[in-house]
Design goal:
The chain has helices spanning 36-44, 52-66, 87-108, 162-179, 201-206, 237-244, 259-269, 289-303, 330-346, 391-401, and strands at residues 4-7, 10-13, 71-76, 112-117, 130-133, 136-139, 193-197, 208-211, 217-219, 224-227, 249-253, 278-282, 308-311, 318-320, 326-328, 351-357. The protein is of the alpha/beta class and 402 residues long. The strands form four sheets. Strands 3-4-7-10-11-12-13-16 form an eight-stranded parallel beta barrel, surrounded by five helices. Strands 1-2-8-9 form a four-stranded antiparallel sheet. A two-stranded antiparallel sheet has the order 5-6. α3 (87-108) packs parallel to α10.
């Protein structure tokens, strides 16, 4: 018989989830680790990081955006660091979200649902299993939930005990985020809510809890999880898990997506056509979006799914600078986000908002505005993975697109 553990608002029944037997890409190689089973057991018995009442409130806010009555802003680090899980750093990030959301509210005349890429953005998909650091090939950095940013072979080993560090760091960040929850004239009451890519199935599955009153399953690692472009295969584990949970959920949609596949994703993930349930996060690149996006929008509209449409104008526009650093040009980001808005409006849909990688400090990782050229990138290039906008650049994107 499965063992049921009583938790605040939730019960958790320790049975094998069906999606854990399905194929999944971008997963750590750590099942042979001697501490793996103990870590899984500890996470499975841990308290939820977020409450189901909070998740439902975030879903309600997204529902307003799906109906064209609000905007959405989702921003934060490409990859969080455990070392940033302190009150001062988190407070700075929350204030930055509020500042940029206020600008979006001013520009659009609508309330803004605010989401931070925080309290869980500790895992990253990578295009290659190895990367070169100081002339040596080492396993790729996959976020601090999986391995260390330090560039030696030992530090890059996949370690399941890091899932416990991720849980503790997320709990610290969420505590501080809650201390800042408030509503104002231009912001939807509640929030900012936390969001991350639910990439590592071992971690996420261990934090699924059942609402003892309704029987709904919630992913309690975050309010708003999303599936990445590399893990949205229809018959794979991520889609199956997301179909089972009651959170509001997102899916990244890249330039290779076709209308039929996207509609099938909508059918699997939003079978009841519920406003706020599903967000499609478009990340196609400034050149491909003009051809790839219109037929997808038309197909989703015809299928009757009231999705939230967000633009991620960053991930399709990454280039390598002459210095060898990855960067993005603000003009390219603006170009894609503007095209996104025009396409959605031409098709009679609501361009709800933006999904941006933004630092809360004056980093110099993207070219544009206060970062005049690629030579200036080295002044404050601090990201653990992909280049982020700084606050001034993010405000410039808001002003240019809306």
């Amino acid at each position: 018989m499965p063992q049921t553990v009583k938790l605040t608002e939730f019960t958790y029944t320790q049975t094998a989830a069906p999606w854990m037997t399905l194929p999944a890409t971008q997963q750590p190689h750590w099942h042979h680790h001697p501490e793996y089973d103990l870590v899984e057991a500890e996470l499975s018995g841990a308290l939820p990081l977020v409450a189901h009442s909070e998740i439902r409130e975030a879903k309600r806010a997204l529902g307003l955006a799906a109906l064209g009555e609000a905007r959405v802003l989702q921003l934060g680090d490409c990859a969080e660091s455990f070392s940033d899980a302190d009150p001062l750093t988190t407070s700075r990030k929350v204030r930055n979200i509020g500042r940029i959301a206020s600008r979006l509210a001013e520009r659009t005349g609508q309330q803004v649902a605010r989401f931070g890429r925080m309290a869980g953005q500790y895992a990253k998909p990578r295009s290659s299993n190895f990367e070169t650091v100081d002339g040596v090939d080492v396993p790729s950095f996959r976020g601090e939930l999986v391995n260390s940013f330090e560039g030696d072979v030992f530090s890059r080993r996949h370690d399941p005990e890091r899932m416990l560090l991720a849980y503790d760091a997320s709990a610290s960040v969420i505590r501080e985020v809650r201390a800042h929850w408030s509503g104002s004239a231009e912001e939807l009451a509640g929030g900012p809510w936390v969001a991350h890519e639910a990439l590592v199935l071992d971690y996420e599955n261990s934090l699924i809890r059942t609402d003892e009153r309704t029987g709904e399953q919630f992913l309690t690692s975050t309010h708003f999880p999303w599936i990445g472009e590399r893990t949205r295969q229809l018959d794979h584990a991520h889609v199956s898990m997301f179909a089972a949970i009651a959170n509001p959920i997102g899916v990244k949609v890249g330039p290779t997506a076709d209308p039929e596949t996207v509609v099938r994703l909508c059918q699997l993930l939003d079978p009841h056509h519920t406003p706020g349930r599903l967000t499609l996060i478009v990340r196609m690149g400034r050149e491909d979006i003009h051809v790839a996006l219109p037929p997808i929008v038309r197909a989703v509209q015809r299928a009757g799914h009231p999705v939230v449409w967000l633009s991620d104008p960053m991930h399709g526009n990454t280039v390598t600078a002459e210095t060898g650093q990855k960067t993005r040009h603000v003009t390219h980001i603006i170009e894609e986000a503007t095209a996104f808005r025009h396409i959605l409006e031409h098709e009679g849909a609501h361009a709800a908002g933006l999904h941006l990688e933004v630092a809360a400090t004056d980093v110099t990782e993207c070219v544009g505005g206060p970062v005049p050229d690629e030579k200036a990138l080295s002044e404050r290039y601090e990201t653990l993975c992909d280049p982020r906008l700084n606050p001034e650049q993010a405000l410039g994107v808001i002003d240019s697109v809306f």
